[in-house]
Amino acid sequence: MITETKEVKSKSVVVGTASFEKFDSVAEAVDAKGEATVLDLINTQNKTNALNAIRASVTGKPSKKALMKKALSTITPAEFAEVAGDEAALENLINKKVQELESAEPVAEVVQVDEEE
User: Fold this and answer.
1) Across-strand partners of 18?
2) Between vectors from CA 72 to CA 62 and to CA 4, what angle results, nearest 5°?
3) Which whole number is the average pLDDT over 38-62?
4) How many CB atoms within 10 Å of residue 29?
5) Residue 65 and residue 83: Cα distance in Å, rounded?
6) What is the pTM of this model?
7) What is the rounded CA–CA span in Å between residue 87 and residue 26?
8) CA 42 vs CA 36, 37, 73: distances in Å
9) pLDDT score for 37
10) Which of 29, 67, 70, 73 is most open to solvent, judged by the fewest CB atoms within 10 Å of its CB?
C-alpha cells in the first residue's frame, strides 16, 4: 500500500490536497478497511460507473474532462512544437482536437440499469 496525494480543484481552482491509500491487492484493502467497507466501495463505484454510462448515452458524448484528456493525447510532437510557447495557439489546437473528437464520437447505446436504494 502507498499513500498518494492529489490536488483538489473546484471550478479549475486548487482548493486543497487529498491524501488516500492505494492498495496493491483486494486482500490488502480488506485487511486495512474491512470486508464490509471494501464491498461498499466496490458497489458505490459500480453504481457510479453505471450511472455515468447512462449520462454519456443520453448526451451522446463523453464528459468534457474525458474529451480534453483524449484531445491532449492526440497532439503529436510536431504539432506541439509548432505551438510551444504560444498559449493562445496551444489553446486553439486543443479546442480543434476536442471539436474533431466530438464530431467523431459515436452515440453510446442506452443500457438499462436496475438500482436498489
Assistant:
1) 6
2) 85
3) 86
4) 19
5) 22
6) 0.48
7) 43
8) 10, 9, 29
9) 96
10) 73
- Cα–Cα dist 89/95, whole Å: 10
Residue type, 41: L
For the record, the C-alpha cell of 64 comes out as: 468534457
Average pLDDT, stretch 86-112?
77
- One-letter amino acid for residue 86 of the chain: D
Q: Where are the domains of the chain?
A: 1-32, 34-117
The grid cell for 16 is 486543497
C-alpha cell recorded at residue 41: 466501495
**How would DSSP label each residue in 16-65?**
EEEEEEE-SSHHHHHHHH-HHHHHHHHHHHHHHHHHHHHHHHHHTS--HH
CA distance linking residue 62 with residue 53, whole number of Å: 9
Residues in the chain: 117
Q: Amino acid letter at 7?
A: E
Cα–Cα distances (Å) from 4 to 18, 22, 38, in that order, read 8, 7, 18
What is the distance between the alpha carbons of residues 70 and 73, in angstroms, rounded to a whole number?
5
How far, in Å, CA of 108 to CA of 59, rounded?
9
